[in-house]
Write a structure and sequence with these properties.
The protein is an alpha/beta fold and about 475 residues long. The protein is built from 15 helices and 15 strands. Strands 5-4-3-10-11 form a five-stranded parallel β-sheet, sandwiched between helices. Helix 8 crosses helix 9. The chain starts with 7 loop residues before the first strand and ends with a strand. Bound molecules: adenosine monophosphate and zinc ion. The site of adenosine monophosphate has 15 residues, from helix 1 and strand 10. Zinc ion binds next to loops.
Length: about 475
């Protein structure tokens, strides 16, 4: 590779910034924990995939051949990340009087719609957990003898059987995990089920035969099996939200160690992946992120209120992925305005640039180098965005070259700047009772009223639009004549 600047990433396992060194030269293999499809994803969940997408795009930008896997958890995730509670999928199916398969199909489609709306690239594989159950049983059989024990409720993993259990979470088996141990007979509170037997006399919608009886796999087992099968141990990077650093990923790591017959996490690759990366949470003070509250923050809710989904992507990029990000409608509104400015400015460059085909040219060398430095600095998207602003603002440069430079940067940021136009950005909120053509007609009448100096009528027309959920914007510097309230 001609590019000498390494990509530096924060490894949660070592708690250090490390230059990325691929396991297979020239390649990057990445696994991201996917959603549990028992409900719609909230926008916090989607932050995890915007982050994974920027990581993937950055690896492509650095010249690596990317293989990205995201799973779909359609079995095994209990209402508690440890071993308590019911299977989230079984519970949702019972509550909606539907089959699990219908539930999972519906919410997987909804998740994929959000993925597309946020300009998140398709991974090489969407791995569906229920399609890997035979492989999960094989994996469990391979580690059962040395690392597991059977109880009436299932096959349990003995966390004391591997070295350095819990290092990722910085918790130790000796100190105890502090979790409530409700399963009688567990050797250690942190031991977890890798196979959950169906209780006698019960029938689950999703159950399979296994050497430990009819039942279903544990959630942690899924990710170990699908990541190992599709990417090979050790692979390069495993991602997830910061909550997974505490239970899910330490348990995956323990299984991987057992399966690969390796010990000791002083060598990070013994964990199954060389680098473990976690995005911090999107938080919202009033609790609207929680899926248990009626109107929770789904991407569709933002769209229904007139915010383009890519404004949410920009909101995510304005914060570093390791920082907590507080959601507010004002913040989202500010991100939409910033996106609007960018789209308007780039549209002008596009008009002047003609057919394209140009390359960035030496004038853009410094800016593109600063962009590369920012993104290689553990995906510093807030700084990378300021470099994008600089490029967009450059004067007296060839428009074709400028467009090429914007394209190179947007290939990583994924804001769709080369295709989005101003009209596409303005969404009519669902609650408005008036359509675009009618708004245009009222505005036309209002212009006529103002030309006649009939200000009473002009004001009345503005008020009528306001009552229909539309604000008139006189003299908007960005050239919009109306906006949703
Ligand atoms: P789940 O469907 O619960 O398995 O979550 C899907 C992904 O979203 C996981 O990587 C979680 O760690 C992540 N996640 C959950 N809540 C948030 C949040 N509020 N902000 C960012 N990521 C989250
Ligand atoms: Zn996972």
């Amino acid at each position: 590779m001609t590019d000498p600047r390494p990509l530096v990433l924060f490894n949660s396992l070592t708690r250090q910034l490390e230059p990325f060194q691929p396991v297979h030269p020239g390649e990057a293999r990445v696994y991201s924990c996917g959603p549990t499809v028992y409900n719609y994803p909230h926008i916090g969940n989607m932050r995890a995939y915007v982050f994974a997408d920027v990581l993937g795009r950055t690896l492509s930008h650095k010249g690596y051949k990317l293989t990205h896997v995201i799973n779909i958890t359609d079995v095994g995730h209990l209402t508690d990340d440890a071993d308590d509670g019911e299977d989230k999928m079984e519970k949702a199916a019972a509550a909606n009087a539907q089959s699990i398969w219908d539930i999972s199909r519906h919410y997987t489609q909804a998740y994929w719609a959000d993925i597309a709306a946020l300009n998140i690239r398709q991974p090489a594989h969407w791995s569906i957990a229920t399609e890997y159950v035979p492989q999960m049983i094989e994996f469990a059989k391979a580690i059962a003898g040395k690392h597991c024990y059977e109880l009436p409720s299932g096959l349990y993993f003995d966390v004391g059987s591997v070295a350095d259990y819990g290092r990722l979470a910085r918790s130790h088996t000796e100190e105890g995990s502090g979790r409530i141990d409700e399963v009688e007979g567990k050797r250690h509170p942190a031991d977890f089920a890798i196979w959950r037997k169906t209780p006698p006399g019960e029938k689950r919608q999703m159950e399979w035969d296994s050497p430990w009886g009819r039942g279903a796999p544990g959630w942690h087992l899924e990710c170990s099996v699908m990541s190992g099968r599709l990417l090979g141990f050790p692979f390069d990077i495993h991602t997830g939200g910061i909550d997974h650093r505490e239970i899910h990923h330490p348990n995956e790591i323990a299984q991987n160690q057992a399966f690969c017959c390796t010990n000791g996490l002083d060598v990070p690759a013994n964990s199954g992946a060389r680098v473990w990366m976690h995005n911090n949470f999107l938080v919202e003070r009033s609790g609207k992120m929680s899926k248990s509250s009626g109107e929770f923050l789904r991407l569709q809710l933002l769209i229904d209120r007139g915010y383009h989904p890519l404004a949410y992507r920009l909101l995510c990029l304005q914060a570093h992925y390791r920082s907590e990000l507080e959601f507010s409608w004002d913040g989202l509104g500010a991100a939409l305005t910033r996106l609007k400015r960018l789209v308007l400015a780039v549209a002008q460059v596009r008009e002047r640039a003609g057919d394209g085909g140009a390359r960035p040219g030496p004038k853009f060398g410094d800016a593109l180098d600063r962009f590369d430095a920012a993104i290689c600095d553990d995906l510093n998207t807030p700084v990378a965005l300021t470099v994008l602003d600089d490029i967009v603002g450059m004067k007296k440069v060839d428009p074709g070259e400028k467009l090429a430079a914007i394209g190179a940067v947007d290939a990583v940021l994924g804001l769709g700047l080369l295709t989005l136009d101003r009209a596409a950005l303005r969404l009519r909120p669902k609650a408005t009772t008036i359509d675009e053509a009618a708004i245009a007609k009222v505005l036309e009448d209002r212009r006529a009223a103002r030309a006649d100096k009939d200000f009473a009528r002009s004001d009345a027309l503005r008020d009528a639009l306001s009552a229909a959920g539309i604000d008139v914007m006189d003299g908007d510097p960005l050239g919009w004549d109306w906006k949703p309230q």
